[in-house]
Amino acid sequence: MRFKIKKCPKCGEYTLKETCPLCGEKTKLAHPPKFSPEDPYGEYRRRLKKETLGIGVKK
Fold it and tell me: Which of 22, 37, 4, 1 is closest to 12 using CA atoms?
């Protein structure tokens, strides 16, 4: 079963459409991806998050 409900990242409106009816922004899936214990991209995702937040990054 595919998820159909989407959420606008700009205004937070939930919809079934590809674009937000209120602001016209492209919507994204409202559900997180499935959890996998063998997360193949976990290391990269955590590294990106640390870099984005500036944690443990040498400047």
Answer: 22
| Amino acid identity for residue 56 in this structure | G
Q: pLDDT of 30-47, one tens digit each?
A: 887 777 888 888 889 889
How many domains would you assign to the chain?
Answer: 1
Alpha-helix residue ranges (DSSP H) falling in the chain: 42-53
Domain with 2, as residue range(s), is 1-31
Query: Which tokens hold the place of 52?
Result: 């984005």
With respect to residue 8, please indicate whether it lies within any of the assigned structural domains: yes
3-state secondary structure of 14: strand
Within-domain flag for 57: no
